[in-house]
Fold these 2 entries.
Entry 1:
Amino acid sequence: MYLHGTSKINDKGHLQIGGRDATELVQQFGTPLYVMDEALIRQRCREFVDAFRASGLKFQVAYASKAFCVMAMCRIVEEEGLSLDVVSDGELYTALQAGFPAERIHFHGNNKTPYEIAMAIDEQIGCFVVDNLVELHMLNAIASEKRQKVNVLFRITPGVEAHTHEYISTGQNDSKFGFDLDNGSAYQAVQEVLQLSNIQLLGVHSHIGSQIFEVEGFQLAVDKVIGFAAKVRDELGFIFSVINLGGGFGIRYVEGDTPLPVASYVQAITESIKTNFSQYDYPTPEIWIEPGRSIVGDSGTTLYTVGTYKDIPGIRKYVAVDGGMTDNPRPALYDSRYEAILANRANEPVEEVVSIAGKCCESGDMLIWDVELPKVNTGDILAVTCTGAYNYSMASNYNRIRRPAVLFVKDGEADIVVKRETYDDIVGNDLVPSRMKQVSKTV
Ligand SMILES: Cc1ncc(COP(=O)(O)O)c(C=O)c1O
Ligand SMILES: N[C@@H](CCCC[NH3+])C(=O)O
């Protein structure tokens, strides 16, 4: 079993994360429980920053907060000197509440509302990543009402297909995101923005997809971007000072996943930028990237308690846990694969192959198909690894299941950073119309 970061098996044969025995965490905090290895998150942040420093280029590493956005995470990102990419007023609000400096925030999204735009301008965020012409003109109008000039990047779709699941692949021409490069919309957008007095264009942004294991897609995107940059310089006389190459760097979820070290992705990108821009005699721009999954993904472990067990002889053994697609929708959405161990008997030999079912009323609520484990019993603690990205942030209350707590562990300390939801959280926004009988009942 591959263990990430500070995770290891301790003398009692229990999984330990951040110096804390997982079975003791469960006794104290209950299950399901998201446990985040803070040291590993910080290590990943530093790997990106160090790799860029080594390149000698000017850079910003903006953590894509959609992967996991809570106030404590924003604090870490701030402390590690990264910028932050937000994609909604909720993420922006979380960052601001955490004291994240507004000038290091970049606002993304293909349908920003006028309210979100106004809020972000009032807070003086660093940059908008503009997705389309409707947004561009709305942004200019709101900025001019407020007598502000705002920095923007244009999100372009470079026509590069990343080798990943089609739902998380975004760089191809047929995408809901961004200005198409090949059909001329990106060029038209630059022509238009140069006429707008309340917008300062910094450069362009390209994000080709997520969970990518190769560097070729990023290099191809750089090829496309430099071609575009040169055309804009030669025909419109405008120089891009920033190129943002998005996120998408893959991580190891299961055996057979072959991500590159962070430094290799960064080196491929920075080398490609240096070579391409010097070939065109173009001033080397500042490079921004937006990793999400690769910062937090492998630091997360979800702990569950095993409940029921169903053996269909000759077909399958189902082991059900007290969570499922509500805390981790990725297997249901993308056929994502995960690994698991028994946290309370982590050193015992494999005895059976079982499939891990969630507790939702949904046949598709399966967390893992066919995982090898010791003989599983009711009450065992199952640990699913690599759940730090797009798990808590995509969790739901389907079946009115309360969302789990999130715990940060580091050097033997364990701190709740998101409380487990209560029944009051579940019904807190419900209202019963006055024409119906009003009852107040405490369970
Ligand atoms: C624009 C943009 N930037 C960054 C990311 C982060 O991607 P990842 O978590 O794969 O690094 C995404 C999500 O795929 C995105 O859409
Ligand atoms: N939510 C996706 C990736 C994010 C896509 C955002 N552009 C996943 O879990 O893999």
Note: The longest strand covers residues 300-312.
Entry 2:
Amino acid sequence: MPAPPCASCHAARAALRRPRSGQALCGACFCAAFEAEVLHTVLAGRLLPPGAVVAVGASGGKDSTVLAHVLRELAPRLGVSLRLVAVDEGIGGYRDAALAAVRRQAARWELPLTVVAYADLFGGWTMDAVARSTAGSGRSRACCTFCGVLRRRALEEGARLVGATHIVTGHNADDMAETVLMNFLRGDTGRLARGGGLGSPGEGGALPRCRPLQLASQKEVVLYAHFRRLDYFSEECVYAPEAFRGHARDLLKRLEVVRPSVVLDLVHSAERLALAPAAQPARPRACTCCRALASRPLCQACTLLDGLDRGRPRLAIGKGRRGLDEEAPRAGAQPPPSAALPAF
Ligand SMILES: Nc1ncnc2c1ncn2[C@@H]1O[C@H](COP(=O)(O)OP(=O)(O)OP(=O)(O)O)[C@@H](O)[C@H]1O
């Protein structure tokens, strides 16, 4: 049976059905609709004001590739300029190939690219060194926790380096729903309270961050990359199989079979979530080591780096926060560059 005509242009044959609405569209009309929806997200949320210098967190993966491509299309209408910022976490056999993809994109799209490395920013620590250090502590699955905290800090540093006023990342609706679910499953009310909305306004001097693809499903991101013939790196990080996120992802996939709207429902729930006054996280204060915003005496990045420097990663990544708070940073510990507390 031939494909039905495109429900938008009525001229071409439909090439896909949109996963959520079931609308049959040709590739060109789907891409135009996808771009219009991202534009709406940015304008309705007032995420990127005209004149903004936007640092795109570029990992070489599908999400940030699609984000950079869409924003490049929308940049003249939004009146913003773009810079690609890539973080080299020091993950052998993974990040080098991903960075090669980012370099190809920067060259093809004529966008300036800056690469910042954990090793330079964090006193020689790479993710491979962190993984070696945490192996045998029984907590090696926490690699992604370390990486998330340090990457956020590194992205902030890279963005400042290129004179950016805003940071955007490629988190899509599926990523966000996984995060919400993980925070619920861990009982992490602080992150639940901070994690909603389309980004963070830039508390305490940190650059404002946003996620323009937060309402786009993973399937549509992949479809957009396919129809725009984007070149991206699709391998999974070598440390990802250890991550708790994988369990949240599996659970969501199963839930989606019985309730297709579950991903967006979770994202919207998090946006509207209000904590009871007694459960509100403590007011952030300055980290005693680097002066970044922190909900405890030490910010997360300093806590992790200090734990690593002491050779006690178990302390740094465990749930025993009380123990952590009592620990002063090791004398002479290098404070990492300043940034604010992670919101995602
Ligand atoms: N090494 C990196 N350098 C710069 N930005 C990064 C890096 N890793 C992740 N990001 C940013 O954080 C976002 C979420 O990354 P994460 O690895 O959690 O998810 P992902 O769904 O695999 O994203 P992607 O497909 O873009 O790699 C990315 O879209 C990107 O904007």
Note: The radius of gyration is 21 Å.
